[in-house]
Amino acid sequence: MEFSYYPGCSLTGSARELDESFRSVCDKLDVQLKELPDWTCCGASSAHLVDSYLETALPARDLLTAERLGRDVVAPCAACYVRMKAAAKRLIAEKEFQEQFPFKGSINILSGMDMLHLDELRSRLKERMTKPLEGLRVVPYYGCLAVRPVEVVEPADPENPVQMDHILEALGVEVLNWPYKTDCCGGSLALTRTDLVLKLSRKLLDMAVYVEADAIVTLCPMCQANLDTRQADISRETGKDYSVPILYLTELIGLAFRDPGALTWFDRHIVSPANMLARKGLT
Amino acid sequence: MMQTRTSQFAGTITVPAGELTAVINQCYQCGKCSAGCPVASEMDLMPHQLVRLAVLGNLDRIVASKSIWLCLTCHTCGARCPNGVDVPALLDPIRHQALRAKLPTKESQVPAFHNAFLKTIRTFGRVHELFMIGLYKMKTRTYFKDMELAWQMLRKGKVHLLPHRSSNVTEIKELFKQSSFK
Questions:
Q1: Among the four residues A92, A143, B11, B142, which has the most C-beta atoms within 10 Å?
Q2: Is this prediction's pTM over 0.80?
């Protein structure tokens, strides 16, 4: 199996451990990732708010490169995935773009979750896993961009996605039921209205604690960053101690493979999962 | 095309023609969008009110609201609306026009952030967090906010001191020239 790989800006910086664990997991599953040559930013959560042309033009040049190479693209970052998919739809629907960006739509765009959920990869995962993560209880947090906008993502069920649940179950993890699978963490207001992000993130953390989850598992770099980096602020505001590890799905897959890289990934977290994992006998 | 009616920016801000107008005209004010909106409690106009104002052509109030910049574009409203109205899809073209016309905004730190974000892409082809945050802080004079977090991120190897400059940055600059972003 071979894909073009679009890491996106977050995965080169604040979400480095997602990039590292994603590549490592793909290697173990015999998935060849070919990084898109000299990719540029998709415009993320800013371009579509500011300018209708840039919103599509920024992802368009990477889509053209991908189509020329002829492989389906996988974009682990939820924002990159949605921006690329929205641009691909618009390039085909609106003829005025075709002259500048002759994208034909001959390739598919997959999120990290789409790729990991492929039947073939899930069965490889079950076969090759060396240590099932038994005893670990988590809540799956999909966030907005794994299911919305619905006309872009076209999810089977926008209120109750299950792909990540399936993958976690394959790892032997206990997936807890909770009501906030797709509730927003505050996303793009992280730096501008931090007070709102604290409020929304706190709601998610409180529920995770209430259902006695050991960790929140996500694949979205914005969700991970908001939830991981703001717990100290929330603790300061509330006088309650918040320390819920926020893990990437691929980090847990790596752990089930006993990947030695896992320690480096976990070390990059602000809320360290080390104690929790040691208590569970998983390190 | 639906024009703003008693508008102080007469003719400046318009709801785009065609499909979007047809869709928002279906709104029967059930309020489901506002019920599910994660920031409705912070808004001065709730999502269903924004839609109603757009139907009535009173876009000045939308432009002058806090809500237009507090909308997280989480699209929860759009996923749940029985009539297919997606509030961010309605707001995007209004935001574009308000920025292009340089109209005064509430919550002005939000457009300042997006401006810094896009300038960073224009400069490097990719986002360089330190450069982007630097631009944003200069614009909003919030120099000391989140310094402790920035230090932690740097120590964890999550922030690069030096940017990666795409070799296609001239191509990106060209795309920006064709846009309305200045």
A1: A143
A2: yes
CA–CA separation, B62 and B69 (whole Å):
10
Is the ipTM value over 0.85, yes or no? Answer: yes
Q: At what angle do helices B87-100 and B47-55 cross, to 10 degrees?
A: 70
Fold of A130-279: Rossmann fold (3.40.50)
Distance of CA B140 to the CA centre of its chain: 17
SS3 A220: coil
Task: Report pLDDT digits (tens) over A89-148.
Answer: 999 999 999 999 999 999 999 999 999 999 999 999 999 999 999 999 999 999 999 999
Please report, for chain A, the start and end positions of each structural domain, with discontinuous segments joined by +.
2-113, 130-279
**Contact yes or no for B95 and A268 at CB 8 A:** no
Class in CATH terms, B2-100: mainly alpha
Query: How far, in Å, CA of A15 to CA of A265, rounded?
Result: 10
| DSSP state for residue A3 in the 8-state scheme | E
Percent helix / strand / coil, chain B, rounded to 5: 55, 0, 45
Token pair 């290697």 is at which residue? Answer: A27
Token pair in block for residue B91: 């707001």
Rounded Cα distance, B59 and B54, in Å: 6
Residues in chain A within 8 Å Cβ distance of B38 = 183-184, 186, 200
Contact A139, A223 (CB under 8 A): no
Instruction: Determine how β-strand A137-140 pairs with β-strand A174-175.
Output: parallel
Q: Does domain A2-113 have CATH number 1.10.540.10?
A: no
Question: Does residue B166 contact residue B124 with C-beta atoms inside 8 Å?
Answer: yes
Write out residues 11-40 of B within 8 Å (CB-CB) of A.
Answer: 38-39
Of A67, A52, A153, which is closest to residue A104 (Cα–Cα)? A67
Partner A contacted by B95 (CB < 8 A): yes
Round to the nearest angstrom and report the end-to-end CA distance of chain B. 26
Interface size between A and B, measured as CB pairs under 8 A: 161
- Backbone φ and ψ for B39, nearest 5 degrees, come out as -115, 15
Summarised one tens digit per residue, pLDDT across range A246-273 is 999 999 999 999 999 999 999 999 999 9
